[in-house]
Write a structure and sequence with these properties.
This protein has 8 helices and 14 strands. By secondary structure, the chain is of the alpha/beta class. The protein has 2 domains: about 120 residues, 3-Layer(aba) Sandwich (Rossmann fold), CATH 3.40.50.2300; about 100 residues, Arc Repressor Mutant, subunit A. A hairpin with a 2-residue loop joins strand 8 and strand 9. Bound molecules: calcium ion. Calcium ion binds next to strand 4.
């Protein structure tokens, strides 16, 4: 799960980012309006944490921009401004939730899980394909009801492909989703492909019925077809 944290206060941003990374989210940070806008336009996120008062512009304008671009990201506003007007404006502009600073990190974490659960799995906290079942919020994967041991990245990859079954999966998009946009600066895709290879082997060894097939030059397809 990939989260964009838009917050200009360094200390708070570090605290939130660190805490969410511990919970195994991929967290990217934007420190002002301009950087936030660029990331929103360029990448896809599962959830955006949005401060309202930002250098260079308002978080509410970013929210309107998201809507104009027909983006489906979950948005949780995190704001020091406890004004009812802001709250109403934010929720009317399509924010999913609103949290007033200061807040407990545990509260933020619960809100994130709640919006992700609501939209991503349409209320159902598991995804099934073939004989595989995963529980994204618990990082749990089962094959024929038996637990499958995966490292964090392998789970993130599995979650990604479980949401994109029977269609072409672009390997660059997947890498960006799973590893964050730092991949832009990195030419080390070998590491990524090694993780994917490990996951394929684990699925195969555990008797998974779907197979992650490599499609030459494009990426992958996760399918039950032979
Ligand atoms: Ca601020």
């Amino acid at each position: 799960m990939k989260i964009l944290l838009i917050e200009d206060e360094l200390e708070l941003r570090s605290l939130i980012a660190e805490s969410l990374r511990k919970e195994r989210y991929v967290v990217e940070e934007a420190i002002d309006y301009k950087e936030a806008l660029l990331k929103i336009e360029t990448y896809k996120y599962d959830c955006i944490l949005l401060d309202i008062t930002l250098p260079g512009g308002s978080g509410l304008d970013l929210l309107n921009h998201l809507k104009e671009m027909h983006k489906k990201e979950n948005v949780i506003i995190i704001s020091a401004r406890d004004s009812l007007e802001d709250k109403i404006a934010g929720l009317e502009s399509g924010a999913d939730d609103y949290l007033t600073k200061p807040f407990h990190l545990a509260e933020l974490s619960a809100r994130i899980r709640s919006v992700l659960r609501r939209t991503q799995q349409e209320g159902e906290n598991k995804i099934c394909f073939g004989n595989i079942t995963i529980y994204p919020t618990d990082y749990k994967a089962l094959i024929d009801g038996q637990p499958l041991s995966l490292n964090r990245k392998e789970f993130v990859i599995l979650h990604y492909i479980m949401n994109r079954t029977d269609r072409l999966i672009d390997k660059v998009q997947m890498a960006e989703h799973v590893w964050g946009d730092h991949i832009d600066q990195s030419d080390n895709y070998d590491f990524i492909y090694a993780q994917i290879k490990n996951l394929r082997k684990k699925l195969k060894d555990a008797g998974a019925t779907p197979e992650l097939k490599a499609i030459y030059g494009v990426g992958y397809k996760f399918t039950l077809e032979n």
